[in-house]
Amino acid sequence: MKKIIFVLLTLYSFQTFAASVHVSPELKIGPYYDHTQVVSGAGLQLGIAGVLNTQSIYVSYGHTSASFIHIDKDRLKTYRIGIQDNFFGLPDAMALQFELGWVEYEGERNIFGNVQHKDGSGASIASAIVYNINDNIAVRVGLEFNIIDKSNTFLESNVSNILATGLIFTF
């Protein structure tokens, strides 16, 4: 928590140079497919737009809860720092986001009353493509990859992927 406050204060110090604020709520799908629970999490990006010669710099928090056949229950919390800009000469209406940070995992497996718990942490990266509808509203779709040692989770591999989509408001 102290790290997030430090990052927010650092971003706030750039506010005198910023044109506006970047706020982006998101919905997450994954890491399992369950027809009864399509949306498995939510998140929020909060940052400063128009700073350091980019479209925005922001912090990102996400929370995902998923279950697998009502046996495994997994919870992922992600904390990342990101940048948005129209890299690689994209048209002005398009942009890319890149994020880097960490993930915390909590899991529970319940097989016939035998309950096991696991905790782990690791690296988290994300990328999204952004379409700017106008100067104040944009939509984004992206992928998150969380890398956690498989021995510390009930996940099937060291890497879990999550689809994230959201709206970006700049004001």
Describe this structure in words.
This protein has 171 residues and is mostly beta strands. 7% of the residues lie in helices and 62% in strands. It has 1 helix and 8 strands. It has an 8-stranded antiparallel barrel with strand order 1-2-3-4-5-6-7-8. A hairpin with a 3-residue loop joins strand 3 and strand 4 (72-85). It is elongated and about 55 Å long.
Q: Return Rg in Å.
A: 17 Å
The helix count comes to 1
Helix content: under 10%
- Spell out the helices and strands N to C: HEEEEEEEE
Structural class call reads mainly beta
Sequence of strands across the biggest β-sheet: 1-2-3-4-5-6-7-8
What is the average per-residue confidence, as pLDDT, rounded to a whole number?
A: 87
State which percent range the strand residues make up: over 45%
Strand tally: 8
Pick out the low-confidence regions: none
For the record, give the distance between the C-alpha atoms at the N and C termini, rounded to a whole number: 26 Å
Major β-sheet profile: 8 strands, antiparallel, barrel
Shape: elongated
Q: In terms of topology, how is this protein built?
A:
Blueprint: H1 2-13, E1 20-29, E2 41-49, E3 56-68, E4 72-85, E5 94-111, E6 114-132, E7 137-147, E8 159-170
Antiparallel strand pairs: 1-2, 1-8, 2-3, 3-4, 4-5, 5-6, 6-7, 7-8
Can you describe this structure in just a few lines?
With 171 residues, the chain is mainly β. The chain has one helix at 2-13; strands at residues 20-29, 41-49, 56-68, 72-85, 94-111, 114-132, 137-147, 159-170.
